[in-house]
Amino acid sequence: MITRITRTTSGFLAGLLVLVLWYSDSQAQQETWERHIQAGLAAYAQGNFGEAFTQTKAALEAAKVFGPDDIRLATTLNVLANVYLIQDNYAEAEPLYKRALAIREKALGPEHLVVAQSLNNLAELYRVQGKYAEAEPLYKRSLAIEENALGPEDLVVAQSLENYRALLRETGQNAEADKLEARAKAIRPKRAGQNQFVGTWDNIDRNTNGITRIEVQLDGTSPSVHVFGKCHPSDCDWGSTRAEVYGSSVVADLQQNASALRAIFDPGFAETTLTMWLRWSGKLRVEALTRFKDKSGRSNYALIYIFVRRQP
């Protein structure tokens, strides 16, 4: 950071050069981290855990330059822990989940939704190992944060209820498990079909250089998608466009069984196609494919984002 620039022309130019180099270096580090973490997430979603491990380890190296308390480091640690967990490597996953949780609590506060995600992940790790006493208070705290932030009828809450229910079943607390199961089942139909996409969605990566927010509305039977991207000092408004709805089969009722939305944004110099799926966790997974049309020589590129629904 530059705290003082001399009044001389040479001093000003030297200071400007330092500022440009600092910004360029910082931007390059961000882009390197983002490229690897997005590739890791994509590989994980495709079940290619070897590639997910390789890309996430590279993202971890890139994230170290941001500092030990940076939220991007926590995101990377969490993804790497997920890779270890899916391969039953519990010993490697636990310290990563714990460190990610500590960073997120310090950076975002103890009641943030991303903290709830970390609590739930750590609880799942303990549950699959039969460490029920360690898992249960984490489930309870995660659920309380989500209900307070999202309300009692969000899909994220339904998923957490089902996760906690699994622990109750495994410990013989069937009456309590039945209650949670009934609550979860009551929530899901209210979020069925196209309604499940409706709402304001915030990117879980607060440091993204791409899409920061997506708003989905249902006008009659046709959803519209409104997108905002990272700009300074305030986000850029991409505008709103109609979305195509996709089902899970050729006979799917798109009103009741919508599986994905597809929206195209074209400001003239490029065309970005967004494909949106609702994940089992209640988060929105968005694949963004950008194709340049301005003959600038820039390469087409693909990014994957994860969004969480904002409380109404």
**How many strand segments?**
9
- Number of distinct helices: 8
* CATH topology value of the largest domain: Serine Threonine Protein Phosphatase 5, Tetratricopeptide repeat
Shape descriptor: globular
Description:
The chain is α+β, with helices and mostly antiparallel strands and 312 residues long. It has two domains: 9-191, Tetratricopeptide repeat domain (Serine Threonine Protein Phosphatase 5, Tetratricopeptide repeat, Alpha Horseshoe); 193-309, Lipocalin (Beta Barrel), CATH 2.40.128. It is built from eight helices and nine strands. Strands 4-3-2-1-9-8-7-6-5 form a nine-stranded antiparallel sheet, covered by helices on one side. The longest helix is centred in the first third of the chain and has 37 residues, at 9-45. It is globular. The chain starts with 8 loop residues before the first helix and ends with a strand.
Index terms:
single chain; 312 residues; alpha+beta; Serine Threonine Protein Phosphatase 5, Tetratricopeptide repeat; Lipocalin; 2 domains; disordered N terminus
Please outline what is shown here:
This protein is of the alpha+beta class. It is 49% helix and 22% strand.
Tell me the layout of helices and strands:
Elements: H1 9-45, H2 49-63, H3 71-86, H4 90-108, H5 113-128, H6 132-150, H7 155-170, H8 174-187, E1 199-203, E2 211-219, E3 222-229, E4 236-242, E5 244-247, E6 258-265, E7 270-278, E8 284-292, E9 301-309
Antiparallel strand pairs: 1-2, 1-9, 2-3, 3-4, 5-6, 6-7, 7-8, 8-9
Helix pairs in contact: 1-2, 2-3, 3-4, 4-5, 5-6, 6-7, 7-8
